[in-house]
Amino acid sequence: MKIEGKIGLYKRTILKLIKASEKYLKEDYENVYLSINFVSDVEIQRLNKEFRNIDKVTDVLSFPNLNKQPNEKLKKFRKFADFDTNMLFLGDIVISKNVAKKQAREYEHSLKREVCFLALHGFLHLMGFDHIKKEDEKIMNKLQDKILAEVNL
Q1: The CA-based dihedral angle spanning residues 61, 66, 69, 73, taken in that order and rounded to the nearest 10 degrees
Q2: What is the CATH number of the domain that holds 21?
Q3: Which residue range is the domain that position 128 belongs to?
Q4: 8 A C-beta contact, residue 14 and residue 7
Q5: How many structural domains does the chain have?
Q6: What does the pLDDT read at residue 7?
Q7: For helices 134-150 and 11-25, angle between their N-to-C axes, nearest 10 degrees
Q8: Weakest-pLDDT range from 6-15, 36-45, 61-70, 95-104
């Protein structure tokens, strides 16, 4: 797994979370990569409006490169890997650091924990999970909790 983008101090922990998710998703993230970046509130609101038609600031947005469902394995998408590098691009995640700071204070935990949670949440969206329906939200929340516990966050 390779992460591109500017996430500074959080990269190592985010990589641990994603590595821990391999066990629960029964996947192998060798030769896959994604991008994670911090953006301003103005930028995340613009993206939220443009891509989701919701004109408000949010904490995290995911832009999947694959039309993957939770039960589909990444092997199915290998044909989309880069010809030269054999790397499969999963998609982009953007996080509002300002919203992450506010939420960390609100939930009374560290900024690191909040940023890593948001990155994991965004990653699970790239892997096909969502929380539109209540039953899907329960599945996604349970999975997030297991992975966070695995890395002691």
Answers
A1: -130
A2: 3.40.390.30
A3: 2-150
A4: yes
A5: 1
A6: 87
A7: 120
A8: 6-15
- The single-letter code of the amino acid at 138 is K
For the record, the structure tokens of 151 come out as 């890395």
**Residue 18 phi, psi (nearest 5):** -65, -40
Looking at residue 31, its amino acid is N
Across the range 39-64, mean pLDDT stands at 98
pLDDT over 90 (residue 56):
yes
- Select from 85, 88, 84, 104 the least CA-distant residue to 96: 104
Supply angle C-alpha 148, 119, 37, rounded to 5: 155
Distance of alpha carbon 39 from alpha carbon 96, whole angstroms? 5
Question: Which of these, 153, 9, 32, 129, lies nearest to 85 by C-alpha position?
Answer: 32
Q: How far apart are CA 66 and CA 64, in angstroms?
A: 5
| Residue 148 amino acid letter | L
The pTM of this model reads 0.95
pLDDT tens readout for residues 69-107: 998 999 999 999 999 999 999 999 999 999 999 999 999
Are the CB atoms for 63 and 51 separated by under 8 Å? Answer: yes
Q: Are 109 and 100 in contact (CB under 8 A)?
A: no
- Which stretches of 1-153 are DSSP H helices? 11-25, 41-52, 97-107, 111-126, 134-150
Pair of tokens at residue 56: 């408000």
